[in-house]
Write a structure and sequence with these properties.
The protein has 7 helices and 14 strands. The protein is of the alpha/beta class.
Length: about 240
């Protein structure tokens, strides 16, 4: 299985990085985790075959995680000439937010009849579903009170587990999200500064003995974190980075 960090940045382009988007491929699987506003550019820069992507797992509806969906859909319709089915999985309210993001980006586009099979699957925190050969477990993330809900994911394909915190402040649910995962992708927005709705590295390190992931990779870093990379002892993501599991 291969994980590629298509985009490892935050919402504001810190370090010139693309918005959050991870691409996972393997035997019988091909999916994205999040699809931020800049993701189509980054996917094409990395020569990803868009038509082979089966599923997009969305953690929440902020633009740096969800804003790339209109570009992906319309490219699939008019340029990539997609014929294979596509499924988007996301929190409760996905169908409504999909219509909103399409209409804000390209008015009238939500009414376009797509030339490929397309499904929207909503998942609540605490649910577990099997879709496109991936077992998805969702957990409640804490990322604010507006425009929610927000999710963390634990994704299992075969015997491999990839976990992702999404954007969230520390919650003990993250212990279950990342427990002994092959790859635990964690937001680390700040080094040790404690703010609402986002993780800092100090909180992650403090709880690592309980999580015990096989491999921790930090992402979604602010300028504060990027300016301290030489002091960080843990693995950090960068755009285009490949990880083999």
């Amino acid at each position: 299985m291969k994980l590629q960090f298509i985009g490892s940045g935050d919402a504001f382009g810190s370090g010139g990085r693309f918005n959050t988007c991870f691409h996972v491929t393997g035997s019988h699987i091909n999916f994205l985790i999040d699809c931020g506003a800049s993701s189509l550019i980054a996917l094409k820069k990395n020569l990803i075959n868009l038509n082979d992507i089966q599923t997009i797992f969305i953690t929440h509806f902020h633009a740096d995680h969800f804003g790339g969906i209109p570009f992906f859909i319309l490219d699939s319709q008019f340029f990539s000439k997609r014929q294979k089915p596509l499924t988007i999985v996301g929190p409760n309210g996905l169908a409504n937010w999909y219509k909103k993001v399409m209409e804000v980006s390209f008015p009238g586009s939500s009414k376009t009849k797509l030339k490929f099979e397309f499904s929207l699957v909503e998942i609540n925190a605490g649910e577990k579903i099997n879709i496109d050969n991936v077992v998805v477990e969702s957990y409640q993330a804490q990322h604010g009170i507006l425009n929610g809900p927000f999710l963390s994911y634990r994704l299992t394909a075969g015997e491999k587990v990839i976990s992702y915190t999404g954007d969230t402040e520390w919650t003990d649910d993250l212990i279950h999200v990342g427990k002994e995962a092959d790859i635990f992708i964690a937001e680390a927005y700040f080094f040790d500064k404690l703010i609402p709705y986002h993780l800092n590295l100090a909180s992650i390190v403090q709880n690592l003995p309980k999580i015990k992931p096989k491999r921790l990779i930090l992402t979604h870093m602010s300028d504060d974190m990027l300016g301290m990379l030489k002091e960080i002892k843990h693995e950090v993501a960068f755009d285009g980075m490949n990880v083999f599991i």
